[in-house]
Design a protein that fits this description.
Blueprint (H helix, E strand, L loop, with lengths): L14 H25 L3 H7 L14 H12 L2 H13 L2 H19 L5 E2 L2 E5 L2 E2 L14 E2 L6 E2 L3
Helix pairs in contact: 1-5, 4-5
């Protein structure tokens, strides 16, 4: 995982911290998939629910602020943890299975560099900027301004 220069005002993790967060995502993906396998959950459920959190991207049709909020709700670890706890409290095993898949999805996304989103738009994440122009050279001084904070955001 390459170190990519990011403007310190972008709010994105940089250097070794960014790499650690991505490796942590890979560990979450592998660990939750392994736990799913050990639990004996049906692989049809895994396949069916793995990309369901990505449907939250449709919320960007309502604008970047709402899109980021819904996307982050579906890609933070709080909701699958609450689902797992509800499954334990109600002795409902499918809740545990779905939460493991959900955690695996979050880890997979983080390993690929898709982090939690900022209101500036889908491409602005806590793990750096994503998209076609994300690898813009650090010598490129053109910066995009975050409409929420007014801070310059350089390509990650």
């Amino acid at each position: 995982m390459a170190n990519i220069v990011i403007n310190e005002n972008s709010g994105a993790a940089t250097g070794g911290v960014r790499d650690l967060l991505r490796w942590e995502g890979a560990a979450l993906f592998i660990g939750m998939t392994l736990f799913y396998w050990i639990s004996g959950g049906p692989w049809q459920v895994y396949a069916l629910f793995f990309f369901v959190p990505d449907l939250s991207m449709l919320a960007y049709l309502a604008g970047p602020r709402i899109g980021a909020g819904v996307y982050n709700l579906m890609h933070a670890t709080i909701a699958p943890l609450l689902l797992a706890l509800a499954g334990i409290a109600t002795a409902e095993p499918i809740a545990g299975s779905i939460s493991l898949v959900w955690f695996a999805h979050i880890g997979f996304d983080r390993a690929l560099g898709y982090g939690l989103k900022y209101d500036a738009g889908f491409r602005f994440t806590h793990l750096g900027r994503i998209g076609k122009d994300a690898t813009t050279s650090a010598t490129n001084t053109a910066a995009v301004e975050n409409p929420t904070t007014g801070n310059p955001i350089k390509a990650a």
